[in-house]
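Final report, closing paragraph on structural work. Over the funding period we assembled a curated collection of sequence-structure pairs, and we close with a single example.
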Amino acid sequence: MYGKCGHLKDAVKLFDEMPDRDLVSWASIFTAHNQANFPRQTLFLFSRMLSRDGLQPDHFIFASLVKASACLSASKLGQQLHAQFVLSRFSDDDVVKSSLVDFYAKCGLPDQASKVFHSIVSKNVVSWTSLVYGYARIGRKNEALELLHDMPCKNVQSWTALISGFVQGGHSTESFRLFNQLRSEGIDIEEPFVLSSLIVGSSSLAMLELGKQLHKLVLGFGYESNLYVSNALIDMYAKCSDVLSAEKIFGSLRKKDVVSWTSIIVGMAQHGRANEALSLYDDMTKAGSRPNEVTFTGLIYACSHVGLVIKGRQIFESMITDYGLSPSLQHYTCLVDLYSRAGRIEEAEKVLNTMPFEPDEAAWAALLSACSSRAGKNETGVRIANHLLQLGVEDPSTCVLMSKIYASATMWESVSTVRRLMTAMESKKKPGYSCVDLGKENEVFYAGETMQHPMKNEIVDLLNDLDSEMRKRGYKPDTSLVLHDMGEEEKERQLFWHSERLAVAYGMLKSARGAPIRIIKNLRVCGDCHTVLKLVCGIVGREIVVRDANRFHRFKDGVCSCRDFW
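Its predicted structure, as stored:
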């Protein structure tokens, strides 16, 4: 009862006081934790059930454990549970099999999901829908549509699964194409969960105008009071750099859940508005809403961008002591970033060396970035760069940092090694692009003089004019960021043709005078382009918003919201 009513603490207290616990009581407490969105705790309690009470799982327990594994995308654990289930006397249970279909679908393994699906005697809408979602999520459109066609009990949830599968798998364009096709065929899918999925899709594409059109649909169908939809709109506007609209929707909510609070807090943090993010957190706790892991990621991130080291550390510790949450690698990486930005390199390195995770490239790169911008930290920087070479580097921006560290230490042989590594990456990595959002029109630009565009001459002329004005103001291209063996003039030309500059120039030529220019970039913006965009926004008096692979950069009046550290 307590679990179903959302009173998890009371449920746990009563459970702990029970002198004897059977499979029914364990199944109830597992379900209560799953419903409260604490799947890790469900799996932790399972080990207690085995060790303390010596019980073996039945079909109800298996279903709860598989559901928890699905929520965490814990593929290895879920497969172990599957093997244990097959060997148990409950191996014919269709409910557990349905849970396994959902598990494999959410782990991106639809073929395994299909094998389980075909062993189900009495297939229900849940198992059909889960399999449709699984194929859609990895972009296998034909299989997903074929399944939907064969499905005997189609409903709006089936179409929702298809569309949300495309969105969550990064195939948002396909989801919009399908939505338009279904509407033109007269299929009624104007349902809150479909719209919220599409809104998430527009935010992943960072297409503000598309998001606004969906917002109008929401208003037209009267779904503005639906919390799922409203939360999706807050997230969309924040990710599309329209924070004011995100604030407006958040302020209009009569009821706010943890997703509402987290979406606005993370949005503020990503846009460099740390004080607002921290103030919102205070309001959140006063309102009695319990923050989750994502909330704390946004808060520590916010503190790091305004140098609030003590506050950030307090928030990190509060996450553990006050809320019983276990920090992930991402939380520790944010903590490293917090110390690094404040110049506390030794403390940042100590976190890396003592945290309960093996630091990945992103964690070491956060510290390396601080070393490259701090005088007297070359020795530490070289040591980290050497470690990264042994670890294996996959991100080209990390190579740029390593090259700068080695060059400042006059370690030219190591610079050559990094350049060879970078050359090898060039053949494998996705090409860098920048997309300028002009409302009803979007234009994608790739780096390089080979650009084929009807307005190429106008773009180049504008960039040349801006380059001349920037040089008058003291601009000198940072050619150390070009890791190719070529002359200085050629290196400057390489920088000149970076995709974000082409996109900004096109945006200036095509957008209304004085309107903000919005750019989406798939890679991290380079240091030289960052300098250029700060100068350009001051020269033309325009706000330029760039969403790169790391964060938002809001360039206005000659400065950037990231405070030159990203």
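The chain has a mean pLDDT of 88. The two ends are 48 Å apart (CA to CA). We thank the funder for supporting this effort.
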